[in-house]
Amino acid sequence: MTALRIDQVSRTFPARAGHAPTRALEPTTLDVGDNDFVTILGPSGCGKSTLLRIIAGLDRPTSGRVTLDGREVTGPGADRGMVFQSYTLFPWLTVRENIAFGLRERGVPQQGRHDIADAFIRRVGLSGFEHHWPKQLSGGMQQRTAIARALANDPKILLLDEPFGALDNQTRALMQEMLLGIWERDQKTVLFVTHDIEEAIFLGSRVIVMSARPGRVKAEIAVELPHPRSYKIKTTPEFVALKERLVEEIRTEALKVAEQA
Amino acid sequence: MRPLEPTTSKQRVVYGLAFFVLFVALWSWATFGGHVSKTFLANPLTMVQEGYELLAKQGFLFDIGMTIWRVIGGFALAAVIAVPIGVLMGAYKPVEAFLEPFVSFARYLPASAFIPLLILWAGIGELQKLLVIFIGAVFQIILMVAVTVGATRRDLVEAAYTLGAGDSGVIRRVLLPSAAPEIAEILRLVLGWAWTYVIVAELIGSSSGIGHMITDSQALLNTGQIIFGIIVIGLIGLISDFLFKAFNAWLFPWKLA
Ligand SMILES: Nc1ncnc2c1ncn2[C@@H]1O[C@H](COP(=O)(O)OP(=O)(O)OP(=O)(O)O)[C@@H](O)[C@H]1O
Ligand SMILES: [Mg+2]
Q1: ipTM > 0.85 for the complex
Q2: How far is the CA of A231 from the centre of ligand 2 (A)?
Q3: CB atoms B174 and A90 under 8 Å
Q4: Cα–Cα separations (whole angstroms), residue B189 to A155, B105, B134, B186, B229
Q5: d(Cα B59, Cα B66) in Å, to the nearest integer?
Q6: Which of A136, A211, B43, B94 has a CB 3.0–4.6 Å from the CB of A132, allowing a cystine?
Q7: Residue B5 contacts A, CB cutoff 8 Å
């Protein structure tokens, strides 16, 4: 059974004064099964965010359609949780209130909201920060809160757009392990966008490689590394072999971008 | 002194007071020293005496009360009407397209120029005073609130949608809280302007208020009273500004954190 089906989805941004139309995404087809963890890997500007925004319902495709459990996506909804590339916590809400935002929207009573929010606060290791404002958190803590906020809504699919892109390497590695731990325990359907090759392999059950602009699926590589995965897996021969293969794929694309520029 | 280098709070108080000391010193020099005629400018001591006279014997406290009530009344009326309209304009672009040209035009109409017309329409009673302040404040608030709400971070709005919020949820739980501190700042600013309008409104056809006292004193060439009246206006403005700031800081702790 397929949970998410992306069927010949393309996106062209209309021309603006003095600019030709931008073809951001070539017709793209992709299926994501239940409890799959798919990572999308591609160079900057290849339309990764565009694709994710279309799935989230924040943007409309120029052609093609997206269906989730057979129902066409026509707008944003709580069944698709999203974690953005930029920090998008509500600055006027505390960590706990941020995480409970979607629950409150659904009318969950206060006590229930707190219980669920606090459970997720523990899961992402933010105990003791329930009453902090986003401003008082580091970047990594903000993204952990954003992940908890999306998960607390119990979406069918979790969309993550380079959530760790702005973090330093050590923090990033810890966050990857945390996210993978949650997935291994809870089994969620996850679509994770990144331009970091190691991250794509470490997290994903499948890596989708996208070509340079205009973006399209260039290759699909299954990652048959056993779960649960720890950071140590990054030095195993299997991991390194996958990495070499992906480095080649991505390098050709990056070169194309460099030539276009 | 170096650019943007902060001062300690103690230094700030000392510097701030130093200005007033210097100001009064210059004033004393000009008046006690006989450099300016008494008819045009009273000396500080006379000013204080006249002020005491006003408060103790001429019921000036009542005038102050009247002026404060007018400012707050007219301002509250304007805020209650302008803030919702501004929010709607900021949130819904068609509403903005409908109202923006008119409001932009109307906000350049000087409130004081309406006074003769308002006297004709509403007489010289309280309603006329309130309306002057209302006209002076309402369009300014609408426009600034609309701009603030319209400038809400798009990514926060999108995050709310992906969390299942509907349109009314986005307005209530994203646009409003995100714009609230700015709206409070706008109100603080416009309240300051309202003080100017009220005095002008009281200078013409009024039987009470600080502005009325000032016109009366002018007829008697009592510059001491005029200056005292002006200083009282400044002090009340300063106090209300301070209270407003403290209230805003208390209301929006997340801004300061
Ligand atoms: N609203 C828009 N209007 C016009 N062009 C756009 C718009 N959004 C994106 N684009 C263009 O579409 C292309 C793909 O953008 P997108 O943000 O999807 O890339 P990306 O793969 O997410 O890149 P990055 O890794 O840097 O985040 C870019 O060339 C961008 O300039
Ligand atoms: Mg992107």
Answers
A1: yes
A2: 26
A3: yes
A4: 44, 20, 14, 5, 22
A5: 11
A6: A136
A7: no
